[in-house]
Structures are given as structure tokens and as C-alpha cells.
Specification:
The structure is a homodimer of 251-residue chains. With 251 residues, chain A is mostly helical. Chain A contains twelve helices and three strands. A three-stranded antiparallel beta sheet of chain A has the order 1-3-2. Chain A binds a DNA duplex (30 and 30 nucleotides) through helix 2 and helix 3. Chains A, B: It holds the Pfam family GntR.
Chain lengths: 251, 251
DNA sequence: CCCACCAGATTGGTAGGGCCAATTTGACAA
DNA sequence: TTGTCAAATTGGCCCTACCAATCTGGTGGG
């Protein structure tokens, strides 16, 4: 058993704490059971109902528009888009920022996407890594070692290692997607590593992966990443099984 | 040679035509050579310089913030983020919407990400497709056939087919990413299919892929997708080679 | 009875002014 | 040199007003 965490917060850091007006609008939409294509109240009415100024509403709607959750039609109104068909990945990030949990299906899908991207990405990293990439990976490893030794929550160390590997792919577009993924799963990752026993194992796998990437052994690195991800995936699938009775939150 | 296009626009449709204030701010940033971490002028000053109201500035900044290109620090200012490290995929979509072309590296990276996602995605589609997915795929094929027969630009047909396959993965998160990809490459795709000779070949490959997905032959479907994408990739890599001398635009 | 037409209401888009709280800055005093 | 406090600056937010386009409903002509 790792040493008891002494004064470590029991909640993951919430750095950005976005204005919650977006959340209130989403809640309003959810409460009204508005479905794709339906029209939201006018900006003026929303402002009145939510007791904020119209400018604030406009700003929030602009955000929702950029993540393709709504569509503004001048002189007509604001319409809900088919969120599962049109929504962007950032729509999920936005929801996560606001504390709205993803549902179980989304978590499974996210895990699946992660496996696809990171396994293939690790292979690319093994082929293309440069000195600066290796340095970042090694730095992440070092921070991880200290965190394991200190019994701290491993979540940010884990994220930094994976982001460093994603950076080593030398593919900035892939990195953007992976980055969004880690923003999306901050809370989940934090809870996953709340059990201090997971950290040492993860760190070991990270070290092995880093060695393979250093050696330029792309295939081995990819295989190690696949194995590494399977540990976490197993945990989540088990958790989702347990929650079948009625639980819905998972973020 | 396909029949000459009679009255077909020479530019792809630009449905959304976002407010270009975001573009003007980006131009302002580019012009000032602002780099990551630097502070933008205050909202009031930006409003004055760009000759718009502060509300408009605030909306644009809110958009840039959601795609993680800037960070607003209350009582301090607006700061540029490390766009290649923090930026979201939607930041690229935003740029594409605004008509700012991606640079060559980004195009290559996008192509690479596409291959990873769509090849793996097609395999999943072959395993999970439901009746409704097959219906959408077949509908896309039918529209494609008509477009080929009529000699129309195949771009939207191509996109719809690929989006239908992505939907058949039953992974909404993956679908979001693929969707963003197709938003990003609308213009490029349009130009690619401006040469009418590419459409019949693409349509044939689509038909073969659809058959494999229908049959539930996931491995074959994935292989067909890989081959299909290689045709387009070859074209782009060739184009990028030609442009080495000085060209920079590629969107 | 039907349809074309027009005025008023509604809507998103935008400008501009003002207030607040928090931070930064710099002058002043010990 | 150092501590302190007031003024300027900044993002966050509210409010009013105006515009252009759209939508609505009623009216008048056929």
C-alpha cells in the first residue's frame, strides 16, 4: 500500500473554470428536451430567462456555434444542430470543462479512439522522434518517477508522458486530437490514479515504451502502448459493467 | 474526357461564411508577428483599431478561446497560446472556414491522420454496421453514381460516403473527428475532383468498399479503404513536391 | 373565396456607453 | 530602500439603441 496521501486535494484541479453561462444554456436545452433542428428562444428571451445580459448570451452562443452545437440563422433564430452528427470534439471538451459528465457510450468510444490514435501514434513516434522529443519524454518520465516515489496522484504525469509521445509523432494535427482527448479525460484519469497502486505499474510501462522509442523500435513501442492502454481499458469496461443498473455519470 | 461542365461554379460552396472579425484578429496577430505567450492589445484597443464594437471583439475572442488559440486572463489581458501544442482541431476548421489555407506540413499531417482514422474506422464499420448505416452508405453511393453520370464535381459525394462509413463505426467520437476532417478539406477536395476523371475511379472504390462492409468483411473493407486513400495521398504528395520552390498555399 | 401585397413585429448583428472588481503601476512617504 | 496607497488599466458584464432581413397577419383587389 502506498503511503496515505497527506494533504492532497481529493478533486482534480479545475484550472480554467469556464464561464458557466454555456452550461446554463445547455441545461436549459436539456430541460426543455429540445432535439436536433429545434429552435431555441431568441437571444432576448434567453437573456431574460437566465437573468443575464444579451451580450453574455451572444458570447455563449458564439461558443456553442464554434463547436457546432447550434446554428445561428440571422433574422430567424438559433437552432440546435444534430449534435452526434455535426458536433466537434471540442463540444465534448466544453462539456467536460463545464463538469457535465460524458455518458457511458461516449467513454467507451473515447477509449476506442484513444487506442487507435495512440497505438499508431506511438509507432510514428518511434520512427520520427527527434532529440527535443526524447528530452520531453525523459522529462515526463523523471517527473513521473518523483510522483510515484512521493505517492502523489499520477494523473498529470501520465497525461504529460502521453502528450510527449504524441508530440514525438511530429504530427501536429494528431497531437491536437490527442490533446483534446486528455483535456476530456482529466477528471476520469484523476480518479483512476486515486488508487496509488496503479501509478508504479503505469510508470514501468512508460519507461519501457520510452526505451523502445529511444531505440527507434517503432513496432515494439506500439505494442507496448497497446498493452499499456489495455490496463486502463480493462478498468473502465469493468467499471461500466458495474454501473449498468442505473448509474449514468462517468466523467 | 468527361463532358465539359456547363454552368457549375468554379468555387466550392461556402455555406457558413463566418463573420470575418476572427479572421481580422488573426491577421492582426500575424502581422504583428506575435508569438506564443505574448499579450494582445486590450479589447478596447482592438475594438478601436479594427473599428468595431467591443462586443464584437469579445465574441471573436470567445471563439478563439474555445479553440484554445488565446487565453483570457481577467484584469490582465488576452494572451496567445502555444497554438501547435494547445490548439484544438477546431482551430484548423476555423481557419479553413475563414479561407486561411493550411500550410503544407499541416496538409501532410492531416492526410496521415486521415489514413489512421479511416482505415481503422472502416474495419470497425465492417464489424458493427447496422441497417441504417448500410442505408446511408447505399444512398451516398447512389448520389455518387448520378454525379459521375452527370459529370458533376464529386467532392460532396465523396465526403458523404466517407462520413457514412464513419457513422457506421458506431463511434460518435471518431465520427466527430472525421467530420472535422471533412470540414477542413472541403476546398481541397473540391479542387481534387475538379478533374472529372478522378470521380469514376473513386466511385468504383467506394462501391467495392461498400460491398465489403455489407458482407461484414472488415479486413477487406479496411484494405480497400487504404488503397482508396493512397490514390488521393499520391496526388497530394506529388502536388506538394511541385510546390517546393516557393508556394505556400494548399487549402 | 382566394391570392397578392403591404405594414408591423420579431430576430440576429452591431455600436457604444457605463459600471464593477481585480490587478497592475507608480508615486509618495517612512 | 522599503512599504503603502491611490490611480489607471483590464476583462466581465449590463443596457439601450439602431439596422437589415425575415416573418406574420391582416387587408384589399380580383
Amino acid at each position: 500500500m502506498p503511503p496515505a496521501h497527506t494533504a492532497i486535494s481529493v478533486q482534480p484541479a479545475r484550472e480554467d473554470e469556464r464561464s458557466d453561462l454555456v452550461a446554463r444554456i445547455l441545461a436549459f436545452v436539456a430541460e426543455r428536451r429540445l432535439t436536433s433542428g429545434e429552435r431555441l428562444p431568441s437571444e432576448r428571451e434567453l437573456a431574460e430567462r437566465l437573468e443575464v445580459g444579451r451580450n453574455a448570451i451572444r458570447e455563449a452562443i458564439a461558443v456553442l456555434e464554434t463547436v457546432r452545437m447550434v446554428e445561428r440563422r440571422p433574422n430567424s433564430g438559433i437552432y440546435l444542430r444534430a449534435m452526434d452528427r455535426d458536433g466537434s470534439l471540442d463540444a465534448l471538451v466544453l462539456r467536460a470543462d463545464l463538469g457535465v459528465p460524458l455518458d457511458e457510450a461516449e467513454v467507451s468510444e473515447l477509449i476506442e479512439l484513444r487506442r487507435i490514435l495512440e497505438v499508431q501514434g506511438t509507432e510514428l513516434a518511434g520512427l520520427r522522434r527527434r532529440e527535443e522529443d526524447l528530452a520531453r519524454i525523459d522529462a515526463a518520465l523523471e517527473v513521473g518517477r518523483r510522483a510515484v516515489a512521493a505517492g502523489e496522484n499520477f494523473a498529470t504525469c501520465d497525461a504529460e508522458f502521453h502528450l510527449a509521445v504524441a508530440a514525438a509523432t511530429r504530427n501536429s494535427v494528431l497531437r491536437r486530437v490527442v490533446n483534446s482527448f486528455y483535456l476530456l479525460s482529466r477528471t476520469r484519469r484523476w480518479h483512476y490514479f486515486a488508487d496509488g497502486r496503479r501509478a508504479p505499474e503505469a510508470q514501468r510501462q512508460h519507461e519501457a515504451m520510452a526505451a523502445a522509442i529511444h531505440a527507434g523500435n517503432a513496432t515494439a513501442a506500439a505494442g507496448l502502448m497497446r498493452a499499456h492502454l489495455q490496463s486502463a481499458e480493462a478498468y473502465w469496461h469493468e467499471l461500466l459493467q458495474q454501473r449498468l443498473p442505473g448509474g449514468k455519470a462517468a466523467s
